[in-house]
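User: I'm preparing a small set of examples for a lab meeting where we compare how different chains pack in three dimensions. I only have the primary sequence for this one, and I'd like the structure in token form so I can line it up with the others. Please keep the answer compact; I'll paste it straight into my notes.
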Amino acid sequence: MDERSERVAKPAVVLIHGSADSPASWRALTPLLEPDWTVVAPSYPPCAEPAGSGGPALPRDLPWLDAQMARSGARGLVAHSYGALLALRWALANPGRLDRLVLCEPIAWGIAVHDAATATRLGELDSLCVQRFVAGEAEAAMRWLVDFWNGDGFWQALPERVRAALLAGSARTCAEVASGGADRTTAAELAGLAAPTVLLAGALTPAESLLVSRTIAAALPDARLEILPDVGHQFLRSHAAALAAAIGRPSAG
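Assistant: Understood. Below is the structure token output for the 253-residue chain.
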């Protein structure tokens, strides 16, 4: 078999990035996977909602992800944050279509809504983030969101050009955050998802997000949770080796 045939024959894995991010978040991971996998790392489609409408992105992104999976023939799916919520909901709607699923801190808030602290955070997510987007206060909303995931003052410390780019994509970010707030994933649903799954979470991530990852891992029939030390929510670039190990090599045959 020549080099081109080997490249074509490699199985595909689809990588779905998180909110207010891009496929560049997988840049360190891609070369670690390419010896064994055909890597597909698409960008989300443009936001179809009017800026600040408050409508969730998930209903329109599920058909988009279905097309990505069908086009690539992938049976592996790796995703982060909002993308991990999207991947989880797709996997639940498509039983038997995955051989492996890697979820990096999915914002499936519904699974932990029974927890008082998580319920409080969901209220803040709506009032201090989504509703500020809806009111046209994009910078205040983005500041809250960035600081929630990365610590107080993180937004202000970003270079001006980075803040400007994040604000330019705020309509899409609002729709992604609203998707997390609207999530109602249940343990009963997860009990029917047989795909082998690895959940990755940062030890320094917000406690509510860590609870979500723990709860999902406990509810799935074939899952393990790996907590990465000394890192928060944004670990894709710094912990590419851990991601590659979670994905592993393609199954024989």
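A couple of notes for your slides: The two ends are 17 Å apart (CA to CA). Residues 1-7 have pLDDT under 50 and may be disordered.

User: Perfect, thanks.
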